[in-house]
Amino acid sequence: MTDQKTAPEYAIEVENLQKVYAASGRMPEKHALKGISLKIPRGSIFGLLGPNGAGKSTFINILAGLVNKTSGTARIWGLDIDQHPRQSRAAIGVVNQEIVADPFFTPFEMLELMAGFYGVPKGERQTDEILAAVGLDDKKDAYVRQLSGGMKRRLMVAKALVHNPPVLILDEPTAGVDVELRRSMWTYVRELHQRGTTIILTTHYLEEAEELCDSIAIVNHGEIVACEPTPQLLSRLDYKTLVISPREPLADVPDALSALDAKIRESGELEITFRTSETGIGRLLEQVRQAGIGIGDLVTETPDLEDVFLALTSEPA
Ligand SMILES: Nc1ncnc2c1ncn2[C@@H]1O[C@H](COP(=O)(O)OP(=O)(O)OP(=O)(O)O)[C@@H](O)[C@H]1O
């Protein structure tokens, strides 16, 4: 699939991408993308995170050829979408949020139809392999209307794979999917990735981005507010929380600790938030002991992606 000799360094490269949706009816003009520049390395699992209306779908739809950009440039697998519209689109498979499937076709028929649509010669089709890969081999001859919601979703992924694209874009792949199926989709995404496919996914689930993605871009109000390898993004928050279960119940934070960012949780634990670059746990524990608090148990909590996300997207536009 991926010809390493001609494979580009970046699966996707966009430069100053802008989208202004024209005003219509009572809806005013909307500047949905305000100059996005992004380089997504070949071979990554890249997450695009952002609150509702941030511009994620607009970005994906421009790459998929469903929305016309207002200005800027975009390359898919090294191919400019204006100069090489057909070839650039052949390099991506896009799985949208909606389930579009004719209920009277079987999964096998649907994939064959799709392959025909992409001009994949009969001898090169991988319909059975793809159905097996998404766990639908035993449903290949069922009618689509007989499939569960999760199965239909996997069929949408299968549809996007018939032309063997080196880049797969998944728009909210696990929205509304139960935890078990979400885990099995993650496993499948990882398998695809291991086989060489570059994966780009949008998600509302921070846990999903944290778990799967090696790099994450956070989009807010049509702008990229952060784009970093996941561990680096997580390490941005220079604080930890020390949670102490006191031997004796505490009514209030003792005066001796009033200089700290400390409070008593409803569960009775003493919570102290501290900057890791300024204070060590040893020093804090010493202060706690000196305040006469017996320590029954303690844990430290590190910030997660949710905290980074909130910190970066909470400022008004
Ligand atoms: N066809 C359209 N005409 C006018 N405005 C649009 C159109 N499509 C999207 N928008 C607006 O552009 C902005 C970005 O929308 P977009 O769908 O790209 O966001 P999103 O990040 O994908 O959101 P979600 O997570 O809810 O899918 C929103 O304010 C939306 O209302």
TrEMBL record:
Pfam families linked to this entry: ABC_tran
Keywords for the protein's UniProt record, in alphabetical order: ATP-binding, Nucleotide-binding, Transport
UniProt keyword Iron, yes or no: no
InterPro entries cross-referenced by the UniProt entry: AAA+_ATPase (IPR003593), ABC_transporter-like_ATP-bd (IPR003439), ABC_transporter-like_CS (IPR017871), ABC_transporter_ATP-binding (IPR050763), P-loop_NTPase (IPR027417)
Boundaries of every ABC transporter domain copy: 12-246
Family annotation (SMART domains): AAA
GO molecular function, one term: ATP hydrolysis activity
SUPFAM superfamilies: P-loop containing nucleoside triphosphate hydrolases
PANTHER family: ABC TRANSPORTER ATP-BINDING PROTEIN, ABC-TYPE MULTIDRUG TRANSPORT SYSTEM, ATPASE COMPONENT
Protein name, as recorded: ABC transporter ATP-binding protein
